[in-house]
């Protein structure tokens, strides 16, 4: 499979649907990312902060880097100068640290709130009650250097499409409800990041605006 052809084909498909492609480049060497970049891809997602920083240092500066893996508070400072979007915000404490580090870099950092939608306990994320509490908190209202752009979720790793569809559908309903309840006056709450290589077509059916694809573009590791 040719990476350039795959990038072009999938981007054409997603552009028609108004869905943004995040090319998941974790574990991929810079030369492979460069191939995707040369094919026109500009948004790349990484799981690990150290790997992300190394790639940021060596690759073109117009790449938009997304952090899609679990983020520890003590690592925020390393990505704060350049990160475009953090998908995996799952606590007020983490938001507080992102706000602090963004202020030091004179930036506003875009964030997605990660919601736990899967049946597995191993996945990170806020449950519905925690999410509403966070959005209602006075602390959140006081942050000046973050912007909540939307929600992110990871479905259960299962061959049961009905289950995956239900999880994505639930997240879309939650997204719509929160947009009306908390972000009615703003237009920046616009991103619903759900769907990976195994299930992105189901995520698109359920109304996502952003998918995170790795093996679909780069082949299996």
**Largest sheet composition:** 8 strands, parallel
- CATH domain class name: Alpha Beta
The shape, in one word, is: globular
Distance between the termini: 13 Å
Note down, in words, how this protein is organized.
This protein has an eight-stranded parallel β-sheet with strand order 7-6-5-4-3-2-1-8. The protein has helices spanning 3-16, 30-38, 49-58, 76-79, 92-104, 128-136, 138-142, 161-182, 200-205, 215-218, and strands spanning 20-24, 43-46, 64-67, 85-89, 109-115, 146-153, 191-194, 210-213. Strand 6 (146-153), helix 8 (161-182) and strand 7 form a beta-alpha-beta unit. By secondary structure, it is α/β, with parallel strands linked by helices. It contains ten helices and eight strands. The radius of gyration is 17 Å and the shape is globular. It has one domain (3-214): TIM Barrel (Alpha-Beta Barrel), CATH 3.20.20.
Question: Would you spell out the secondary-structure blueprint of this structure?
Answer:
Blueprint: H1 3-16, E1 20-24, H2 30-38, E2 43-46, H3 49-58, E3 64-67, H4 76-79, E4 85-89, H5 92-104, E5 109-115, H6 128-136, H7 138-142, E6 146-153, H8 161-182, E7 191-194, H9 200-205, E8 210-213, H10 215-218
Parallel strand pairs: 1-2, 1-8, 2-3, 3-4, 4-5, 5-6, 6-7
